[in-house]
């Protein structure tokens, strides 16, 4: 595919639009579930579709995204040439091959953002082999789809505050962002990257419990989902520690403490500690394939 066929001009660095808005072109390389969520988030946040490019392995997938969002599709090499910021959203296992394909085409003034679990900025920088190339690592999560993502952002060796700010501009409209040292990213991946899955797992188990207690599935589902939303909003908005919020539900000799005793007896807390440790360890392993 040529730039003529995408109808987009070569990359430019931060041209000021009328009104002073920075005009940066962003390419999402490997637009699967997370990549698509980011594209839709950037568009919801007001980024013009003309400033967003996607790449996909299958032509059919590229066509689907161009039709759905009005963004242009490109090859990986072309995206490297035409976008100021390259966001890599392939699976960790596909990262080495993507970087090998990109390496001859990435100019040193690009910002590369890796969103893959376990892949370090050093892994990306070493395989691209471009001296001084800024690389930022971001771990986000699927609530990016509803603008409630938790995205943790870390600078690689050559990434400056300005590069972190550019990454935040992309991820902040779709949720909350924090800056963390890269040494914490495997733990972050275990907590907030995978975190939504643990909550879904708990909700699924509690719906089953409702069935056990004789409730219709739809009723159990509605009761637990709304309780989860209510609890999440209280956690976020009250500023209270979860222990305090739990204590407020737990009446002396009441129902909640009977349930808590069973959770403790079955080692749910210990299971969560072990589970997140396993996720952290798996994140560490992913860069080695
Ligand atoms: N799913 C999740 O909850 C989260 C995922 N992540 C990370 O996001 C990344 C993507 O995950 P998903 O979106 O779930 O995976 P996905 O499989 O839906 O998307 C990856 C896409 O990359 C494409 N691809 C692979 N190699 C390519 C290449 N050389 N050129 C162009 N396209 C290529 C694949 O065809 C696929 O469409 C992973 O690295 C994962 O660790 C991060 C946070 C949360
Ligand atoms: O399960 C995974 O490997 C990805 C990374 C974080 C969430 N999902």
Give an overview in words:
There is one protein chain. The protein has 289 residues and is an alpha/beta fold. The protein has two domains: 3-185, NAD(P)-binding Rossmann-like Domain (Rossmann fold); 195-286, ProC C-terminal domain-like (ProC C-terminal domain-like fold, Orthogonal Bundle), CATH 1.10.3730.10. It contains 13 helices and ten strands. It has helices at 3-6, 33-44, 59-69, 76-82, 92-102, 121-128, 161-171, 185-193, 195-212, 217-238, 242-249, 255-265, 268-286; strands spanning 15-16, 22-23, 26-29, 52-55, 72-73, 85-88, 111-114, 135-139, 149-155, 175-179. Strands 5-4-3-6-7-8-9-10 form an eight-stranded mixed beta sheet, sandwiched between helices. Strands 1-2 form a two-stranded antiparallel sheet. β6 (85-88), α5 (92-102) and β7 form a beta-alpha-beta unit. α8 (185-193) packs across α13. The protein is elongated and about 65 Å long. 35% of the residues are buried.
């Amino acid at each position: 595919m040529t730039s003529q066929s995408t109808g987009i001009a070569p990359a430019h660095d931060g041209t000021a639009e009328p009104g002073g808005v920075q005009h940066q072109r962003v390419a999402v390389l490997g637009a699967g579930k997370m990549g698509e969520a980011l594209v839709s988030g950037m568009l919801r946040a007001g980024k013009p579709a003309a400033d967003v490019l996607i790449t996909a392995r299958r032509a059919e997938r590229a066509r689907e995204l161009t039709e759905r969002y009005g963004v242009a599709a490109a090859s990986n090499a072309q995206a490297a040439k035409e976008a100021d910021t390259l966001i890599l959203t392939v699976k960790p296992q596909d990262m080495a091959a993507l970087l090998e394909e990109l390496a001859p085409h990435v100019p040193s003034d690009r910002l590369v953002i890796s969103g893959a679990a376990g892949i370090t900025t050093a892994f990306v920088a070493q395989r691209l082999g471009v001296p001084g190339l800024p690389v930022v690592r971001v771990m986000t999560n699927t609530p990016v789809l509803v603008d409630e993502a938790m995205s943790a952002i870390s600078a690689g060796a050559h990434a400056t505050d300005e590069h972190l700010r550019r990454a935040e501009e992309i991820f902040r409209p779709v949720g909350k962002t924090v800056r963390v040292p890269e040494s914490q990213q495997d733990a972050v991946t275990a907590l907030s990257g995978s975190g939504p899955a643990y909550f879904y797992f708990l909700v699924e188990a509690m719906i089953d419990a409702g069935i056990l207690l004789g409730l219709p599935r739809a009723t159990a589902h509605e009761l637990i989902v709304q309780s989860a939303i209510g609890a999440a909003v209280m956690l976020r908005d009250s500023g209270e520690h979860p222990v305090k919020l739990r204590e407020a539900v737990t009446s002396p000799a009441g129902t909640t403490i009977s349930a808590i005793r069973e959770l403790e007896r079955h080692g749910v807390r210990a299971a969560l500690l072990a589970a997140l440790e396993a996720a952290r360890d798996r994140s560490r392993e992913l860069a080695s394939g």
